[in-house]
Structure formats: C-alpha cells, structure tokens
C-alpha cells in the first residue's frame, strides 16, 4: 500500500515537472523570438525649436468704465410734469430730459421782474434829481442797491428754474428710466443713468514688481468673453499715485476706443500690456507639450547609430514652459534652438521609440 502511494507521488511529480518545464521552454522561445524581432517604427510629425523675438507682456483683469458717466438726479424736489426722453436713446449735451413743477417759481420770477423794473425806474429818477441837486447822494446809493438786489433776485429765479429743468450734462446714452410722470421726487432721487461709450476707460491693477514695466502711452490689448476672437486696442493714459499697502498693487488706467459702441461700462476683460522692447525667446508648437502633474515634457527626436545604421529615436525631455501666444508656447528651460520635437503622434511613443518623420510632417 505504501509502495503504491509513493509510485503515484512520483508519477505526479514527473507530470507536473514536464508541464512546468514545457511552459518555461515556451516562454524562453517566445522571448528569444521577440528579442530578435525589429521594433516597429512610429510615424510622427515634428517641428524645430525656434528662437523668436517677442514683446514682453504684463497681463491683468480689468473693468471698463465710462469716461463720463453719472446717475442723473435733481437738485430740487417737486412733482414731475414732463419727461422728454426714451430709455436707451442717445442724447446730446443740453438736451431736456425731465421737467419738475415750476409754477410757483414762474410766479416768483414775474414778481421779481416787476420789482426789477420798478427799481430801475426809481434809479433813473434819482439820477435825474441828483443832477439838479434835488436828491441826496444817500438816496442815489439806496436806489442803486435796490436795483442791484432786484437784478440778483431775477437771476436767482432763473437759476432755480434751470435746476427744475433737468438737462443732459454731456452727450451719451441713457439707461432705463426710473421715474414716472407725476411722481414727487426729492433731491438725490435717481431718475436715469447717462454714460458716454466712446472711448472707454479700462481700469486694472498690477503688482509692484511689474510697475517699472508700466508707462503712460504703452499699448494694451483687451479681450472680453462677450466677443471671442476680437481684440480691442488702446493705450495706458494714467497710473496710480501710490502703491496700495494692503495688496501691494498699483492702479492703472488705459483708454480704449469704442467706435462701434459694442463695449459697455462695467464689462470685465483680460488686459495685456505690451512692452516696446523685444526679447529673444525659444518657442515650440503647443501640440508638442505633454502636460503632466510630475512635470511637463516633450519628445525630442535624436539620431542614434546602431550596428552602423543611423536611425531616429524619441527621448523624453522635461521642460519648463512660459506664456503661450496663439499656437506657440515659450520654453524657459530644457530645450535649445534647432532641436527637433514631436508635435503629433506622442500617444504611440515611449522612451527610446524609433520614429520616422514623413516629409509632410516636418515643419
């Protein structure tokens, strides 16, 4: 019984050993076959690292503001007796907008004008009498003072009437009317806003580290998400008088023409300040960069000689990128001018992959 058990164990060991040996032999033969198989060549597109001259830029987020913009409010209270505008229309400076009840003031003006005429008559009479020594100098002085007081009263009435007739202080576009006919308003009541749209200010801030690069007259470009693909150009027209001690930022104001009046006060935009000087930078197409949390990299195409045969291989290179303009990305470190980088087909590559670049894929 014991002898039979040993025989079975030996047979099983021989059987499993044979299977295991066959597997090892098969794997070895497959490895040898793969080792002697040529590595497939990957077809990619490539472009050279180019040295360009760029104008340095400072970027910020800005807000558009009207060069002239006010909330039209009355200086005197009263009931509205006339509204002479429509919401959203363009008006010129001096255009009547709203009339506040002026009936009492007109009556006061009529009374004061009558007093002015009487004072003028008395002044003439007194001057005639003093010429014949029938009136004293004090009587003449009193007549002159009375006349001047009457003239001042009439001027005051006209000034009050002007304040009751609300006019556009400058040319611009009106907003939405906020009052109604017959409504009683008090001084400071918002009636309508008035804004000039061409040109517009763009207000933004830059850190004090960039202040030396900001000068009056420096060109700026503004992009707004309302009009993708469009750029609005202007120039810096003013800078703040001091650095904000809380934020260490300084205020900057640029003026941007708006002839088509498509921009509005209150819009925000991405501002780019373009310096006049030029600096040399290395650039590659944006498609060449593979972004990674462990470091951005590119595949550099290099020539390698194997068994006397020259071939091209792709090698990973960690790079430090700068700003992007259009389809070009600035390279701060990691590459040199003239090196060839892969711009298409990176997904098929790994370190050391042999590559070929068709004539149509080389830029």
What is the topology?
Elements: H1 2-36, E1 42-43, E2 45-48, E3 50-54, E4 57-66, E5 69-72, E6 78-83, E7 90-91, E8 96-100, H2 103-131, H3 137-164, E9 165-167, E10 172-174, E11 184-185, E12 192-195, E13 200-207, E14 219-223, E15 232-239, E16 249-256, E17 268-274, E18 279-285, E19 297-306, E20 309-318, E21 320-325, E22 328-333, E23 340-344, E24 353-356
Parallel strand pairs: 1-24
Antiparallel strand pairs: 2-23, 3-18, 4-13, 4-17, 5-12, 6-8, 6-11, 7-10, 8-9, 10-12, 13-16, 14-15, 14-17, 15-16, 18-22, 19-20, 19-23, 20-24, 21-22
InterPro entries: Beta-barrel_RND_2, MdtA-like_BSH, MdtA-like_C, MdtA-like_HH, RND_pump_MFP
Pfam families: Beta-barrel_RND_2, BSH_RND, HH_MFP_RND, RND-MFP_C
Domain Multidrug resistance protein MdtA-like barrel-sandwich hybrid: 70-190
Largest sheet, strands/sense/barrel: 6 strands, mixed
CATH topology of the largest domain: Helix Hairpins
User: How would you write the strand order of the largest sheet?
Assistant: 1-24-20-19-23-2
N-to-C span = 83 Å
Rounded radius of gyration (Å): 43 Å
Regions with little confidence, pLDDT below 50 for 5+ residues: none
Helical content stands at: 25-40%
Mean pLDDT, as a whole number?
Answer: 84
The backbone outline, from C-alpha atoms, is: elongated
Give the total of domains: 3
Return the CATH architecture of the largest domain: Orthogonal Bundle
Count every beta strand, where a strand is a DSSP E run of 2 or more residues: 24
The percentage of residues in β strands lies in: 35-45%
Q: What's the CATH H-level homologous superfamily of the largest domain?
A: Helix hairpin bin
Q: What string gives the helices and strands in order?
A: HEEEEEEEEHHEEEEEEEEEEEEEEEE
Q: What is the number of helices?
A: 3
- Determine the structural class based on helices, strands and strand pairing: alpha+beta
Domain Multidrug resistance protein MdtA-like C-terminal permuted SH3: 281-345
Protein name: Multidrug resistance protein MdtA
GO molecular function: efflux transmembrane transporter activity
InterPro entries: Beta-barrel_RND_2 (IPR058792), MdtA-like_BSH (IPR058625), MdtA-like_C (IPR058627), MdtA-like_HH (IPR058624), RND_pump_MFP (IPR006143)
């Amino acid at each position: 019984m014991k002898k039979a058990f040993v025989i079975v164990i030996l047979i099983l060991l021989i059987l499993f050993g044979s299977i295991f040996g066959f597997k090892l032999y098969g794997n070895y033969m497959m490895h040898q076959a793969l080792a002697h198989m040529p590595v497939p060549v990957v077809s990619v597109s490539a472009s050279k690292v180019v040295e360009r001259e760029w104008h340095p830029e400072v970027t910020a987020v800005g807000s558009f503001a009207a060069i002239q913009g006010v909330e039209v409010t009355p200086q005197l209270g009263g009931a509205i007796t006339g509204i002479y505008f429509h919401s959203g229309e363009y008006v010129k400076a001096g255009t009547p907008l709203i009339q506040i009840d002026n009936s009492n003031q007109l009556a006061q003006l009529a009374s004061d004008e009558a007093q002015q005429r009487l004072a003028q008559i008395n002044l003439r009479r007194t001057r005639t009498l003093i010429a014949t020594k029938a009136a004293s100098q004090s009587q003449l002085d009193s007549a002159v003072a009375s006349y001047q007081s009457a003239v001042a009263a009439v001027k005051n009435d006209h000034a009050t009437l002007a304040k009751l007739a609300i006019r556009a202080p400058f040319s611009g576009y009106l907003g939405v009317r906020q009052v109604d006919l017959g409504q009683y308003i008090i001084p400071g009541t918002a009636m309508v806003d008035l804004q000039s749209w061409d040109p517009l200010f763009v207000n933004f801030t830059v850190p004090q580290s960039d202040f030396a690069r900001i000068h009056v007259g420096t060109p700026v470009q503004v992009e707004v998400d309302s009009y993708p693909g469009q750029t609005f150009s202007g120039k810096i027209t003013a800078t703040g008088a001091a650095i904000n001690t809380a934020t260490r930022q300084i205020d900057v104001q640029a003026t941007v023409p708006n002839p088509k009046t498509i921009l509005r006060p209150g819009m925000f935009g991405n501002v780019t300040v373009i310096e006049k000087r030029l600096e040399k930078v290395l650039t590659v197409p944006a498609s060449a960069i593979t972004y990674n949390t462990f470091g951005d990299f590119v595949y550099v195409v290099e020539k390698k000689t194997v068994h006397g045969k020259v071939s091209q291989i792709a090698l990973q290179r960690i790079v430090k990128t700068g700003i992007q303009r259009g389809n070009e990305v600035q390279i701060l470190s990691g590459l040199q001018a003239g090196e060839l980088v892969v711009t298409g087909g990176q997904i098929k590559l790994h370190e050391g992959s042999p590559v070929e670049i068709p004539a149509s894929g080389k830029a």
